[in-house]
Design goal:
This protein is mainly alpha-helical. The protein is about 80% helix and about 0% strand. The chain contains 19 helices and no strands. Helix 1 runs antiparallel to helix 5 and helix 12 runs antiparallel to helix 19. The chain starts with 20 loop residues before the first helix and ends in a 6-residue tail after the last helix. The N terminus is likely disordered.
């Protein structure tokens, strides 16, 4: 018995003609790589940047500003691409990204660099959304999964490559080089995008929605800033975080009311109400929450509790990257051959949930090799989600709304990653503060790289502190397992089982 959704009107849905792999894949891969790598390449360069331009207390602005701008840009590019052509919008996004990268390299203050990063984020958000939508425009539905698997592998590789490249470029050529390297790569992406065909298809009518844009911007900015505040160790940041969350809830309620009445809404609520799409978007949010939380807190655990060196920690993340890339590629090919979709994340999320529970209870006693194998298995299980989510929303949305569908996934993943990381951080520090305030202070000092935190504690006290920190991480890893468990139920109940 099949639970697949019936096509709306097969005669009315044009099927894209298959094009050559070497024409399509490089043209969508390079813009995606640029956008993703720029989210992480700056992290390792931050110390050098603040050492030269000062204002270390505002260093986080350089990272957060890009994330906020990219998140806001995603639905805008999705909607504009559906109306005016995704290839044209890709050229605009690349041009904006290149110009903003040049501006970032010449900035002399944190404030101007933050503004340049906002501009760069407006370009990067378009690169991510349009890359996903162009796959749906150029590739037949069944073959999209294979390409989405490739893109997922590229995205994960870029996340891993970013900090390595950022450290190397900063050390040998200065922090400006992490932005200047985008210029030749960006022009190469322009040349590759030029090779894509501009299909003659029916476009959605466009009408500006300034009210929706303003409300959506308030929603994204207040939500991400609230999540950033919650991650602070200082409890004094919580009232500000709560106030920002209240603003975001008000903006969300007003946005929904406004978009339901708008003639050409920025946020396609009618599309998002479809069960297959909202479940897929929520699955992307849970997946982002689990994956980013793991990548964020596992290195902290290994360094602070296990005493592992940063280089060894980086090596342990390699199996995770390999697993995600391999899982995405395999699942993409299986979907292309069988047409099955949600069956893969159903089993994948069960495996991931079990692995996170194992990590919670046995990470303290596992040797590095078994821990690396566990990371490989987690990566493979997490790789079952990405291609399925994009293929699902694009199949249900139809060819006219590919941009809106891709943007909904990108937005959901970004918000899920931010919310999940903040929630895990809150649980981690709250557990420590309730169980052992001294351990909470010691852990905060570790995170902030403070060497002199007062009189040296006795070996017994140090052992007790490390034990309490390890127990708090057990809570954190168990919380991450609830994200993958949520993704499992969302996959299990998604009505689109086959394309």
């Amino acid at each position: 018995m099949s639970n697949a959704l019936e096509p709306k009107d097969p005669a009315a849905v044009p099927v894209p003609k298959p094009s050559g792999f070497l024409t399509i894949f490089p043209s969508i891969m390079l813009p995606m790589f640029l956008a993703v790598v720029d989210q992480t390449i700056v992290a390792t360069a931050l110390p050098a940047i603040v050492a030269e331009i000062g204002q270390v207390e505002r260093a986080s602005w350089i990272v957060v500003s890009y994330l906020i701008a990219a998140t806001i840009a995603a639905p805008i590019y999705g909607r504009l691409g559906d109306s005016f052509g995704r290839r044209k919008l890709m050229f605009f996004a690349l041009a904006l990204f290149i110009v903003a990268s040049l501006l970032c390299a010449i900035c002399k203050t944190v404030e101007t660099l933050t503004l340049a990063r906002v501009l760069q984020g407006f370009g990067g958000g378009g690169l991510m959304t349009l890359s996903q939508a162009l796959v749906g425009e150029a590739v037949p539905p069944r073959e999209r999964a294979r390409y989405q698997g490739y893109l997922a592998a590229i995205a994960v590789s870029a996340n891993t490559f970013g900090p390595i490249a950022g450290g190397y470029l900063t050390e040998h050529f200065g922090w400006q080089s992490i932005f200047l390297i985008n210029v030749p790569i960006g022009f190469c992406a322009v040349g590759l995008t030029w090779r894509l065909k501009n299909p003659n298809v029916e476009r959605l009518p466009w009408k500006a929605d300034p009210g929706g844009l303003i409300l959506f911007t308030v929603l994204v900015v207040s939500t991400l800033l609230a999540l950033e505040q919650i991650q602070h160790v200082d409890l004094n940041a919580l009232p500000l975080g709560a106030g920002l969350f209240a603003i975001s809830l008000f903006a969300a309620a007003w946005l929904i009311r406004h978009e339901n009445k708008a003639a050409s809404p920025l946020i396609p609520l009618r599309l998002l109400k479809q069960p297959a799409i909202w479940r897929a978007d929520m699955m992307a949010a849970c997946h982002g929450a689990a994956l980013v939380s793991l990548i964020t807190f596992l290195p902290v655990y290994l360094v602070s509790v296990r005493g592992v060196s940063p280089s060894t920690t980086g090596i342990l993340l390699v199996p995770l990257t390999i697993g995600i890339g391999s899982g995405s590629l395999i699942v993409g090919r299986l979907i292309s051959k069988t047409g099955l979709t949600t069956i893969f994340p159903i089993y994948g999320m069960v495996v991931a949930t079990i692995c996170f529970v194992v990590l919670a209870f046995f990470a303290g006693s596992m040797a590095m090799v078994p821990l690396g194998i566990l990371m490989l298995v987690i990566g493979g299980a997490m790789g079952t989600v990405m291609a399925v989510v994009q293929v699902t929303v694009q199949s249900v949305a139809g060819p006219a709304r590919l941009g809106e569908a891709a943007a909904s996934v990108q937005f959901s993943r970004s918000i899920g990653a931010g919310f999940g990381t903040a929630l895990v951080a809150t649980a981690l520090f709250a557990t420590l503060a309730l169980k052992n305030p001294e351990a909470a202070q010691a852990f905060a000092a570790m995170i902030e790289h403070v060497k002199n935190t007062g009189p040296a504690a006795s070996p017994v006290t140090q052992a007790a502190i490390l034990s309490d920190i390890g127990a708090a991480f057990r809570v954190a890893f168990l919380l991450i397992s609830t994200f993958t468990l949520g993704a499992f139920f969302l996959a299990l109940t998604n009505p689109l089982r086959r394309i």
